[in-house]
Amino acid sequence: MSTFDWLNSEAFTAFDQHIMWSDMVGNSIGLIALALGWRRSIWTWPAQFLSGVVLVAAYASAQLSGGVGKQLLVIGVAAWGWRQWTRGSRNAQDGTIAVRFATWKERGFLLAGTAVGTLAVGTLFTALPELSWNPWPDAYIFVGTLAAMVAQARGLVEFWFAWLLVDIVGVPLAFSSGLAFSGFVYVVYLALVLWGLRDWWLRSRQPAGQQRPALEGAPA
């Protein structure tokens, strides 16, 4: 049995839902990545990268091409985010990444990019139904995930708000797609997101003197 076949084999059944190894392993790593993000640890990015690699198999088995595309995008953004946090400014006390609220200009770019991106991807999925059987919710999650990761890479508290909005659609879509473990994990994500939002919010209020300047060569 190949690794791909094993990942897409059934791990167990719970509440009449068939749980696949790829769905369980990929989302478990995703939970770890989210927890590491809450702790502002740079290891959140390699964890997200690995989660994306495993979840490609899960979405491929469910014949959700849009989900596969989203995970490929997650892999690429995770590599970029890793580089951003390596070069970013850090807290003087514990060396973790410094966080802040976005400026109104940054919020405008995020909202406009998410709206335009969802419209473009949703139109693509509608025109090519083989990419997704549920084009608009899939497009919403696809683009929302990208927006959340971009905000996280920049150390913006709004990252957590983006994940909240993704969760609202992600839970029912995962269950209806037969990815039950993804649905359960999205529920746990919600608790971690609320916890992480509170932590980042408080830390964004720290005096500037408690943060170290950006590392040499980092963008201002």
From TrEMBL:
Q: Which InterPro entries match?
A: NMN_transpt_PnuC
Q: Which residues form the signal peptide?
A: none
Pfam families per the record? NMN_transporter
- Tell where it localizes: Cell membrane
Q: What parts of the sequence cross the membrane?
A: 20-38, 109-128, 140-163, 175-197
Topology in the lipid bilayer is annotated as: Multi-pass membrane protein
Which UniProt keywords are given for this protein, alphabetically ordered?
Cell membrane, Membrane, Transmembrane, Transmembrane helix, Transport
Reading the lineage from the top rank, the first entry is: Bacteria
Provide the family line. Belongs to the nicotinamide ribonucleoside (NR) uptake permease (TC 4.B.1) family.
Spell out the protein name for this chain: Nicotinamide mononucleotide transporter
